[in-house]
Design brief:
370 residues, alpha/beta, Rossmann fold, 5-stranded parallel beta sheet, 4-stranded parallel beta sheet
Length: 370
Amino acid sequence: MKMVDEYRNPEKIRALSEAIRAEVGDRGYRFMEICGGHTHSIYRFGLNELLPENIEMIHGPGCPVCVLPIGKVDEALTLTNDPNVILCAFGDVMRVPGSKISPLEAKARGKDVRMVYSPLDALKLAIDHPDKEVVFFAIGFETTAPSTALTIMRASQLKVENFAVFCNHVTVGPPIRSILESADLDLDGFVGPGHVSAVIGTTPYDFVAEEFGRPLVVSGFEPIDILESILLLVKMVNRGEAAIYNQYVRAVKREGNAAAIAAISEVFEARPSFEWRGLGFIEQSAYRIRKAYAHFDAEARFAMEEISSPEPEDAICGDVLIGAKRPENCPLLGSQCTPEHPIGALMVSSEGACSAYYTYVHRTLVATKG
């Protein structure tokens, strides 16, 4: 708690806000926070209200649940048609809508879908139920990929024959590149993700500065972390400097976590292409299970076919993910799409931009008007 209090000190927050205001010029600044965790912190602590009007914070595609296309949920749910299959997923994934129903709704209709807190929970289910096929619906960036990799390695060591993984782990670099290559979105810099960077380090972002001339600051998630990162970005933009800076030094090393990176490399390899919500298909942007561990690949074991499902009508999830629109621009937000009855994944996830806006801004505005 001492650490948390230190990074929420009101006097330091006020001083950083004033320092940012003193540093900005007459121009506009457009910064993208890649990680949904930063989006929630910005809204939760009211940091957007502390920034000058000419600094615009734009939400990025760093929410693992949000970027998963609807077709992947539909693919996972096809497995539940087999009464011998137990489908396991994280809590956020349980409520993500497919084209017809979510995993939670499938469970309510009698399908064997179970929430787990880690892939090891799914492995234990397989060990405890040798008569069933247990499939873990794996999602997430490099943050969660090591735990899935280590679980597959453990399953191999124990020779668990009835455990498999539907792998949808993605990587953070390619979508950033895709956004930078977009002619429709002009950004001055990035607040880089903290949790992902604790695994991969900061070197994978070098291309942002070297190829595209944009600064990126890897940031922690507390108010002082984020304001320090924005101040650093403003200073670099004013100096015409493009560099990668690590603000989150208490958790992130330049070289990353060697053990976690080794586990990923042991079990996974890059997919030729993977579909992202809002960004379409991006090359080398996701992992698949290597042939050495093919027995644990649900796609191969169950001969899963790829499904492409359209986004809900009038929903703008994809545009919000790439920063082209903001949550408040969605005609469904707060009326048809709420946390209790989500239409889009961005309202479901604990890192979703729409969830953050609804929780910390929309409800306050409605209450004020009422």
